[in-house]
Amino acid sequence: MRAVVLLSGGLDSYTAAAIARTQRFTLYALTIDYGQRHAREVEAARAVARALGIERHLELDVDLRAIGGSSLTSDAAVPRHRDLKGTDVPSTYVPARNTIFLSLALGWAEVLGARDIVIGVNALDYSGYPDCRPEFIAAFERLADLATRAGVEGARFRVHAPLLALGKADIIRRGLELGLDYGLTHSCYDPLPGGRPCGTCDSCILRANGFREAGVADPVLLG
């Protein structure tokens, strides 16, 4: 079975891809350089793809900076030390990003004859993003069946989001069980010169909390 996995180079997409591999999927990875300031993730995605033995790794440039609307695709300040228990949508939300990414993955899946797409979204730790919710994943599956030739001819697409209801510590534990090297990954929204994580953005804090709760050291910080 073939599956297209959205591979960002972050911890979550790496783990989601590894889980799909245990389910005997042949993985085709799609990494999108969308003009994000944390483009260091693209380099990490290449390392992760090699570690996973991906069948093919496709990189696409889809520059969303012209659209703007996010501190990840503009010069707006990335929030620091934010209250992660809040329900507001943060400025790091990129308008319709997961819809765009899944649409691109869907197009490639149809060409490959694949009916499965894997994405590492997580709603439990980070509910501020509307496109990380289970309702969104279910709605996109329905759209995929309606909007493609394969769907019209009777195929059914499935979007796998194996991390959707897991906390960050549980994700890390699962990845370590699978033998993943999280030293290959990058999570920071606004890395320092040289690519080191800033330690104060939402993504850095969530990652740090996850490793602490899992009781293991983050290998990125040890390097």
Helix-strand layout with pairing:
Blueprint: E1 2-6, H1 11-22, E2 26-33, H2 40-52, E3 56-61, H3 97-112, E4 116-118, H4 134-147, H5 149-152, E5 158-160, H6 168-177, H7 202-214, H8 219-222
Parallel strand pairs: 1-2, 1-4, 2-3, 4-5
Short description:
By secondary structure, this protein is α/β, with parallel strands linked by helices. It has eight helices and five strands; from the N terminus they run E-H-E-H-E-H-E-H-H-E-H-H-H. The protein has one domain: HUPs (Rossmann fold).
Task: Classify the helix fraction into a percent range.
Answer: 25-40%
Count of distinct structural domains = 1
Order of helices and strands: EHEHEHEHHEHHH
As residue ranges, the low-confidence spans are none
What global shape is seen? Answer: globular
CATH superfamily: HUPs
Question: Can you characterise this structure?
Answer:
This protein is of the alpha/beta class and 223 residues long. The chain has a single domain (2-222), classed as Rossmann fold (3-Layer(aba) Sandwich), CATH 3.40.50. Helices cover 39% and strands 11% of the residues. The chain contains eight helices and five strands; from the N terminus they run βαβαβαβααβααα. Strand 1, helix 1 (11-22) and strand 2 form a beta-alpha-beta unit.
Which features would summarize this protein structure in a list?
Rossmann fold, globular, single chain, alpha/beta, five-stranded parallel β-sheet
